Amino acid sequence: MDKILVKGGHRLAGEVVVSGAKNAALPILASSLLVSGGRSRFSNVPRLRDISTICTLLSTMGAKVYAHEEVVEIDASGVSILEASYDLVKTMRASILVLGPLLARFGEASVSLPGGCAIGARPVNLHISGLEMMGAKIRVEHGYIHGQAQRLHGADITFDLPTVTGTENLMMAASLARGTTVLRNAAREPEVCDLAICLRQMGARIMGEGTATISIEGVDKLHPVEYEIMPDRIEAATLMVASGVTNGDFLIKNCPLDKMAAEVAKLQEAGLAISPVGKNGEPGHNGVDVRVVSQRPFTSVDVKTMPYPGFATDMQAQFMVLMCLARGTSVITETVFENRFMHVFELQRMGADIEVEGRSAITKGSGKLSGAPVMASDLRASASLVLAGLAAEGETIISRVYHLDRGYYQFEKKLQALGAHIRRETATA
Ligand code: UD1
Predict the structure, then answer these.
(1) What is the mean pLDDT of residues 275-281?
(2) CA geometry: angle at 26 spanning 398 and 251, to 5°?
(3) Using a 6 Å cutoff on CB, does residue 314 contact ligand 1?
(4) CA distance 8 to 278
(5) Fewest CB within 10 A of the end CB: N or C in the chain?
(6) 144-173 residue pLDDT tens
(7) What are phi and psi of 294, to 5 degrees?
(8) Ligand 1 midpoint to CA 337 (Å)
(9) What is the mean pLDDT of residues 254-265?
(10) Quick check: CB of 166 below 6 Å from ligand 1?
(11) Ligand 1 mean position, distance from CA 167 (Å)
């Protein structure tokens, strides 16, 4: 297994470009299943392990998938195998995103039930109950969700809590259903909006994305599109923290600043100077160029993760590293997932003073960390360990970096270009 080795203490400078958003690309690639004729072309797709997984999944179903550089073209007209196997779903929970499209287009689907994961139980009951309300007959047997439907019909569905992939699954299913579906207490994440915009270009009739109530009037057929995926707000915010922990001063290009208000507000409160630059100062689909300048000591701030537009749970681990380097005590409360503090124990090995009490982590900033061998437990935890390594005295060796590769495109290369002393050791066996 690959390892990443970081020698901390080097100030980052220069410029870095944000890649396309994994969490927008995954549902958008899955949405190609809704199109019965022709080839869609998606650009700004990050070349990540999760993206290869969804491409493999679509190919095993019979779709023709052509991936080159950051473009993925998909022709799903020949899809005939309506199954997502355990082997694929266990490596990526987001495989559940094929359930809605398959049921809507073919009236049949078998998708392995995702198990628990490092950050919590993560059930899919809300995906299932929503599809049932749209007329699907669903049974869970031998670890698989088997769904059948004549043709899905519109329904008025109120989510118990806003689920991102649940909202996306039902939005895709409703696009080809008979009649109108209303999703209430829907997730408002920018990635949900990116999917809605793409679906609309395919001919779907969707209104209200970005608010808690989304209406979808089903149509009989969707057509192929050319669509550019939005930039990754979590990668951009992670890079901002990289500036913070290294006293850095660099430019982040294609930064979706208008979709990062909660995270940027907390980073600014901690003491980072974040400002859009140049003529490209107006936020657009491709983001803006943003300069981030940091100088320790930072101020401790409290954070509570929330569904969008609140502070993203996907930035909690990275923000905690910044708080290890701040002055004073910070309380970080995780409200979205029940077990998302695995990184705490690794950060403690690097000298961090963090105590977990229920859903809160109390960090007493000491201004320093010390390099150590550590192990990544999940995607965002692995990013936090790289950030900690950038700040630490001495060398940090991070193992299980396959987690990082699921969600950050060439992260160590991007950091290297900014001046970080970081390298990957590729396992030979
Ligand atoms: C998505 C993101 C992930 C992010 C998370 C929260 C993708 C591919 N992944 O995950 O990076 O951390 O949103 O922003 O976009 N829940 C239920 N029943 C369900 C569905 C969800 O109880 O049927 C609960 C979950 O356990 C969790 C909460 O709802 O506590 C939010 O989860 P959800 O928004 O569904 O996360 P994902 O879509 O899996």
Answers:
(1) 74
(2) 60
(3) yes
(4) 31
(5) C
(6) 999 999 999 999 999 999 999 999 999 999
(7) -130, 145
(8) 8
(9) 97
(10) yes
(11) 10
In short, whether 124's Cβ falls inside 6 Å of ligand 1 is yes
Measuring CA to CA, which residue among 217, 135, 133, 137 is closest to residue 171? 217
Helix axes 49-61, 22-31, angle to 10 degrees: 10
* Residue showing tokens 């690959």: 2
Q: Residue 298 pLDDT > 60, yes or no?
A: yes
Q: List the residue whose alpha carbon is closest to atom 31 of ligand 1.
A: 163
Length of the chain: 429
Q: Tell me the chain's radius of gyration from C-alpha atoms.
A: 21
Residue whose CA lies nearest to ligand 1 atom number 20: 124
- Secondary structure of the chain in HEC code, one letter for each residue: CCEEEEECCCCCEEEEECCECHHHHHHHHHHHHHCCCCEEEEECCCCCHHHHHHHHHHHHHCCEEEEECCEEEEECCCCCCCEECHHHHCCCHHHHHHHHHHHHHHCEEEEECCCCECCECCCCHHHHHHHHHCCCEEEEECCEEEEECCCCECCEEECCCCCHHHHHHHHHHHHCCECEEEEECCCCCHHHHHHHHHHHHCCCEEECCCCCCEEEECCCCCCCCEEECCECHHHHHHHHHHHHHCCCEEEEEEECHHHCHHHHHHHHHHCCEEEECCHHHCCCCCCEEEEEECCCCEECCCEEECCCCCECHHHHHHHHHHHHCEEEEEEEECCCCCCCCHHHHHHHHCCCEEEEECCEEEEEECCCCECCEEECCCHHHHHHHHHHHHHCECEEEEECCHHHHHHCCCHHHHHHHCCCEEEEECCCC
53 lines ligand 1 (CB under 6 A): no
Q: Residue 308: CB within 6 Å of ligand 1?
A: no
- CB of 23 closer than 6 A to ligand 1? yes
Measure 279 CA to ligand 1 centroid, in angstroms: 37
Q: Using a 6 Å cutoff on CB, does residue 336 contact ligand 1?
A: yes
Rounded to two decimals, the pTM is: 0.96
Q: How far is the CA of 207 from the centre of ligand 1 (A)?
A: 22
Atom of ligand 1 at shortest range from CA of 128: 23
Q: Choose one of 131, 164, 229, 403 to mutate for the ligand 1 pocket test, by most ligand atoms within 8 angstroms of C-beta.
A: 164
**Positions marked active-site:** 117
pLDDT band at 121 (very low <50, low <70, confident <90, very high): low
